[in-house]
Here is the input.
Amino acid sequence: PVLVTTVLMVLFWWLGFSYTDTILEALWSPQGDAWYVTWLLKPLWWIVYVVTLLIVLTVSTVLSYLASLPVAGPLFEMLSEKVEALETGFEAPFDLMVMLRNLLTTALHVTAFLALQIGVFAVILLVQLIPVAGQILGALLGSLTGPLLVGFVPFDYPSTLRLWSFREKLAFMFRNFTLFFGFALASSILLYLPIVNLLFLPGCVIAA
Here is the structure.
């Protein structure tokens, strides 16, 4: 899993470095030799470029993590099964069809949870239209829902091994919200950090 994530992260970072300036120049590129262009607009463009690049790299890190999950899914599932065997003393025999079924279930449930998150983010955008209070409430909702998406993905492996439905997974999350949110918050912090996330990605699956 670490190797797969590393390759995907390098790919996403390369795309970010390669195309951020091109896209930014297409949207806005100060032209001319006037004093305000040289001393104001061009320095401002570089500031916007650096900020945009940092955002792109952060998003690329998260995307590489999410993209690695279906690719490295079989490895994460084997890791989760091994942890189950150590904890329970029972190790299920390998079954290719079961593994493929679990991977499909994971992909469907993560997609469903992502769609749910997008709906929540749409609500957050609408809430932020409310003067003053909307900004505070939107930031609060965003800080609560963001980590949940990151935490749901490693949690899905052990819960899928238990053959839980999507509704059962959500019910477990909200029934144990404090515990789950602590896990999700820790996972999101570790997985947002470049390089560090490579070391802790399997650890998040084990922790789940």
User: Anything to note?
Assistant: The two ends are 16 Å apart (CA to CA). The CA atoms of residues 18 and 181 lie 36 Å apart.
